[in-house]
Amino acid sequence: MASIRDLVGAIRQRDGVEAAVILGRDGLLIDSQAVPGVDAEDIAARIPAIIAPADELGSGAKRGPLLTAVLEYRDGLAIASVLSADAILLVLVKPQANIGQLLFELRRNREQIAALV
What we know:
Blueprint: H1 4-12, E1 17-24, E2 29-34, H2 40-46, H3 48-60, E3 68-73, E4 76-82, E5 87-93, H4 100-108, H5 110-116
Antiparallel strand pairs: 1-2, 1-5, 3-4, 4-5
């Protein structure tokens, strides 16, 4: 059976991926792999402040809790995938990266990924 480290490594090796970070809902880093210059602990600490209001929006809009958020920035994208009540996967990708297959695989394999955490 694969481990969290295997999962993070496999995601990080995808074309265009600059970081793969697993964090707790409290923002504490569980595991990560990133290109030099990306501070995974700092990024992990910022994610709960995005996820909580997104959950509130889902509740208010009667859509349920957040599962995946894609945030587009000038210099790339951030994909936050809520794996469970306790864990979140954050993937940072370059702006030119094709994220379609990645999003499909995260959605299709969410439960299996969550079982590793």
